[in-house]
Amino acid sequence: MIRVTDLDSYLASFDGEPGYLDWAAFGPLSPAVRSEAQGDTELLGSGRRTSIELVADHVREARELVAELIGTDAAQVVLQPSTTYGLMHAIYGLAGGLMLGRGEFPSLTVAATRASEAFGSVQLQWVEPADGFMTPDAIRSALSDDTRAVAVSLVDFRTGYRTDLSAIREVIGDRLLIVDAIQGFGMVEADYLAADVVCAHGYKWLRAGRGTGFAWFGERALERIAPVLSGFRGVDGDLPVDAVPAPAASAQAFSVSSPDTLAAARLATALREVADVGVAAIESVLAARAADVMFFADRYEVPVVTPREPGRHAGIVTLEPAPQDAAPLAASLANHGLTVTTRAGRIRVSPHVGTGADTLRLFGDALAAFSSARVW
After folding, report:
1. For position 119, what pLDDT does the model report?
2. DSSP class of 246
């Protein structure tokens, strides 16, 4: 397997073609992940028990690496097919008032609505901040005595706004804090232990591909969230044949079936790269790449809605051109070979730490071409 152990080699591992600025949508797999997946596929084709067990051990490795990056115990980590699965485990097991923003990614809003409609035990408390940001102040003003849990995104998928988990913990007190961390895990340092549930997925910024989700359940969450969707793998001990034991006391209770060992191998490989390089080093470079995008946007007078203050954004930079400019700008970006996400008149640009000068040059050229043709 290819091993990345320092920042320079990590940056060099971004071997895709120039023009990709859509890491918030999908992360092309890293060379190390591709190599590991190919090797493990061959092992699983051998039929040898030792080979099967060797690949299966990646489940343990992935859980331990997630725990290392959070700062917790691996027993509190469970692998999931996606972020959404983890969030559903958490939300379906709640009772009482659940506060969340209407602008959150559908993984949260849909799961919360379905849980409320199906069981009636969750009462939704919708928040609609004026600027769309779930800030501590916005949460404080919306809290009520009935609020039992608050769900937020670590990084807002629309704008790149970065949530202050520590400050939210101070605001909500002993209530549960559920975090969708897919847009920031491993890319920015965060006080995950201020939360009670953290769910994420490796198919974006971690470059691990689909099926590489995971969730962490803290002690308070294990005490208060019922494992409603717990399956036969959510118990202690061996296969529960001829009896149905109680759910495990650990995060294993939030398992449905056996994890995909090939997905676990990809996740473990991607997490090892991050752990070896260090989240702080990655965050520093990612902030510089986001600043590069903002520089070009400012140069060609394209409004940016992403907060600019240090620590208030991650890798997402969202542009909000005038309504008449949205389509021409999107067309110019596409014509220059750039991949971004365009939605509802906004253009989300998401570079990674390995986004090179050639891609940024293309981005600048696309904005220049758009600006020269713009009618004021």
Report:
1. 85
2. P
